[in-house]
Structures are given as C-alpha cells and as structure tokens.
Amino acid sequence: MAARRFATAIGMVIALFTAAALAAPVASASTVVSSGSSAKGGYGVAGFTDGAHLYACDEGKPDGMRAMAFLWVSGHTKAVVAQDFNGSNAECSDPYLVVDWIEVGTSYRLEACIQDGASGTPQKCRSKYGVF
C-alpha cells in the first residue's frame, strides 16, 4: 500500500513536471529526490520542475513530520523552501515559483528532508545535484 501511494505521488509529480515543461521559461529541468524515512515510515519528496517550481510532498506512513524541499543554485543558499505539512496524504505543497533567476547552465542542488514542526531541524536529508 505504501508503495502504491509512493507510486501515485511520484506519478503526480512527474505529470506536473511534464505539463510544466511544455511552457519552460528560462531554464528547463525536472527532477525529484526522496528523503530518508522516519522511524514510523514517513518520508519527504522534493521536486523541481521546468526551471520554475519547487514542491515538497509528505509521503509514507503518518509520522507527525513535515516534508521540506530546499533548492540551492550555483552553490548559493537561496531562500527557496517548500514544505508540505498537512500529513501523508499523496498531495504535495503548493508550488513555490522560482523563475526569473535561473539560467541555462546553472548548477543546482535539490534536497528533500523531513522536519518535526515549523521550527524543527531538517533531518534524514538526501540531495541530488545537476545542471539546468
């Protein structure tokens, strides 16, 4: 069942990425990364699509944690954070628009974490690196 929910969530993210890629602005990239699992089996998914939108998806078993998505561009920490805090329900956060400042050839790091509450410390983080 958890695998089915994960597949459904990933399918939703990929569908969003595909639809958004048709209207790609400055840079065009789509990628996802999953955090490690909490003790109760919950995890976060971070998605970045079409060089414009950042998403966080809270997946797996309910664990009281929130999913966090972070995006760093060209090694600089940007205030680009998306979070899904409404539970493991196969829905993702609203997209955080980051267009206008990402150009083709720019390196990035996308990170997915889980976090306990709004002011908690991100944990179980995993990253993916690439170039737009």
From TrEMBL:
Residues of the signal peptide: 1-23
Keywords: Signal
Name the record gives this protein: Secreted protein
The organism's taxonomic lineage, starting at the top: Bacteria, Bacillati, Actinomycetota, Actinomycetes, Pseudonocardiales
